[in-house]
């Protein structure tokens, strides 16, 4: 299909003026009826990649989506653009369910959303075989893999179910999880045929990243939330107990907030989720049980009250901010105690299973290095996902206020030289043993005691040395080779240090006395101070309540902000705003236009 035609569809159905990276290519690939695996970050705009082809091509698109609680919102968002979509799940009463089945048989819908469990029913499969399903979309496809963090066995039944259809539909698989094992599992278990694979860059330029060290966390959270009143935010905690504490603390401060964790009943959780998605509560305090499949695009901040288990988990959770592309903040509150808690949890599991979980330990150390680095935070995250060209971003707490640092080139050389001497053939543990002069029997035969810095750091603890080495990895002097037993190797920067052409610095640890008085970052979230924005948002909420849909289904924050900026004076001007398609122009835009036209210009 020609690019011009594609853009016309984009404008017509979604009101957007341009595609985001990879969207157009993914759409084309599916339209060419090629199996497609798309890996885009959270907020990258995956839904549109299959919704658009679903509208253009003939037949029905079956969308498999993990969470029943969110299906209604997903479908409402489509219906708000006058796209004929529906869902079938256990939340429907019998009459509605049968009515929808009849409409599906008549061909009244272009998209049908279901949860994977439905595919295990033979009567449902029988029904599906009458529907002319031409495309099957697997959303959150990482659920198919045990390597991912949300394994759902029922995802494994999808391929067999599709085989029962008269004709195999083209398959599109979508996820934000980029690890190779997950990618392989998706291709294998969905039986993708010569899939086209799209992976975009993982940068989210509208997100500001910050690490706050040594703050009094409760005070910080209260201050932060007060400074961002009226904005939607998620506060992630590592434990249920912490969720309850933060929740009670905010409730006492009269913040409209809800909480979410696995210890609460299903009903309570669903209610909390709905209140948050529908802007009835601006803040949700939650464990990592909350978030998958939440499409709320206008989350303006994600605070991590405690350290997550890995960079992967952190980026996924933090990435739930700012899906609409408008500015948003991701702030992690760091304390050494949290690391000890997480390490304790790992050790506990290890004792139960009797197996040392080096992978979990490494992930935690990498996370810790993120919190302690004096380099660009964004660069550090993107490097984790394999990026090599990472200049400082200028839009994170490290770039804005670099931490005071000291020169540690001498220490670094002891490590790098050792790595060089043992020919990059051993992992962190061996290097640490050599430096501490604490060799094991198996090391003796290898003559490690002849290393130049053997025992040179014997006074230091194993843990401190490991942490130091992780920091060199995070800062790009060393890297790990191989997945199962990672070996330490020198990067070009590391080699330069050995040659004496580069120095190494590390942040000076904060003295405990200075703790507590941490200032909030200057705000990077969207400028909510405009009184017009407040009025438009209020109108959006009223409209949403009347139609029983989440407010973002009417217009996203990004769209309202653009209205504030451009101050459209006619419907024609309105049509130029991104997110205002023909249907929304007629049905929703007039109310907003009226508010803008009658908004008094600020008296300066
Ligand atoms: P993902 O599933 O990849 O996390 P979504 O499909 O939920 O992301 O999209 C995130 C947000 O981005 C949604 O609010 C969507 O409307 C918006 N969006 C998607 N594509 C575009 C585009 N081309 N232009 C502007 N906004 C877009
Ligand atoms: Mg999605």
TrEMBL record:
Gene Ontology biological-process entries: DNA recombination; DNA repair; DNA replication; SOS response
GO CC aspect terms: bacterial nucleoid; cytoplasm; replisome
GO MF term (any one): four-way junction helicase activity
Keyword Zinc (UniProt): yes
Keywords, alphabetical: ATP-binding, DNA damage, DNA recombination, DNA repair, DNA-binding, Helicase, Hydrolase, Isomerase, Metal-binding, Nucleotide-binding, Zinc
Top EC group: isomerase
E.C. designation(s): 5.6.2.4
Catalytic activity from the UniProt record: Couples ATP hydrolysis with the unwinding of duplex DNA by translocating in the 3'-5' direction
Helicase C-terminal domain segment(s): 219-364
Pfam families hit by this protein: DEAD (PF00270), Helicase_C (PF00271), HRDC (PF00570), RecQ_Zn_bind (PF16124), RQC (PF09382)
Domain Helicase ATP-binding, first and last residues per copy: 27-196
Cofactor: Mg(2+); Zn(2+)
Domain called HRDC: residue spans: 526-604
Segments of this protein annotated with the region Disordered: 506-526
PANTHER family registered for this protein in UniProt: ATP-DEPENDENT DNA HELICASE Q1, DNA HELICASE RECQ FAMILY MEMBER
Family membership: Belongs to the helicase family. RecQ subfamily.
Family annotation (NCBIfam families): recQ, recQ_fam
Name the UniProt record assigns to this protein: DNA helicase RecQ
Originating organism: Negativicoccus succinicivorans
Native organism taxonomy: Bacteria, Bacillati, Bacillota, Negativicutes, Veillonellales
